[in-house]
Amino acid sequence: MQDAAPGQVSFASDRLRPVRIWLYCLAAFVLLIVVVGGITRLTESGLSITSWKPISGVIPPLNDAEWQAEFEAYQQIPQYSVLNSWMELDDFKYIFFWEWFHRLLARALGLVFLVPFVVFLAQKRLSRDLAWPLFGLFVLGGFQGALGWWMVSSGLTELTSVSQYRLAAHLTAASFLFIALIYVARSLTPGRVLGHVTPFHRFSTWLLLIGVVMQIGAGAFVAGLDAGMGYQTWPLMDGAIIPNGLFIMDPAWRNLFENALTVQFIHRGTAYLLVAYVAWMIWRRHKDGGFGGVHGWLPRIGIIVLLQVCLGIATLLAGVPISLAVGHQALAFMLAGLVIAYAADMRRVR
């Protein structure tokens, strides 16, 4: 993919190499948080902590009295009274762990960002033009944490789970952060990339990225409505290619976000469109000169798209087991990472 001239770049002269490694580690950390967040969602653990304590919340309950206080706070929300009134303290401790661990990782991300950032500033590895965008990513990470609490708060008074709208906002913002980290890291890679790139290549790739991010958001609506728990057949859905009842809600737009049948249908349909679009991109590139240089990303993207579709179907048919569902979500982020790496490398073609 990359072809630096001999002697052009050495490890000693590549002062941004530690910065790139740090950015890739941050992206991997974001992906870990997404995975744990998926487990938190699938175990219905997200509402187990009913308060937001950014500092003191790092420490979990340490004695019976503290555990009982947390459990009593959970007993005041609708999820407990409607769905989980059977729970004993030991059951509560299990769901509490996943939400606490998810929040702990989110807090740790701030430190994993801020400490190296300050060190790199002190070492003068970061120019002003690079430091400000990186600080913007830090702000985006903090905004993601605020979105997380905004999401949790939606399920503490009237709902028995979090709002699917807020869940989609939270997950989509995480995808923006992940994509931005990969993009900046790839953009800082020294040397040149071989290949011929046209405005069409750039446009089609960015359009694909938009489609992938939209699909991640659609998946969040599926998760928020537990839409994957129904209509667990493929390729037919409720016995038909186009099932009845897609627009039974009034006004019609609500079906796109609140009708479990429609939401799952949209998620399936978008997947088919993405497969067709990537197949078209690959066919077009094959006709125009093959997959050398920067365009070597395309076959890899095609493979991941097919794996993602197969994993999505398997997740549905198996009844949405945690392992497959979390893998499906993680692979969606990896796909977005490949697409943004392709787009970033296009800027480095000379």
UniProtKB/TrEMBL annotation:
This is Heme A synthase. Heme binds at residues 267, 328. Its main location: membrane. Catalyzes the conversion of heme O to heme A by two successive hydroxylations of the methyl group at C8. The first hydroxylation forms heme I, the second hydroxylation results in an unstable dihydroxymethyl group, which spontaneously dehydrates, resulting in the formyl group of heme A. It comes from Devosia chinhatensis. Pathway: Porphyrin-containing compound metabolism; heme A biosynthesis; heme A from heme O: step 1/1. The chain crosses the membrane at residues 21-42, 104-122, 134-152, 164-185, 206-225, 265-283, 303-320, 326-344. GO terms for molecular function: heme A synthase activity; metal ion binding. It holds the Pfam family COX15-CtaA. GO terms for biological process: heme A biosynthetic process. The gene is ctaA. Belongs to the COX15/CtaA family. Type 2 subfamily. Its EC number is 1.17.99.9.
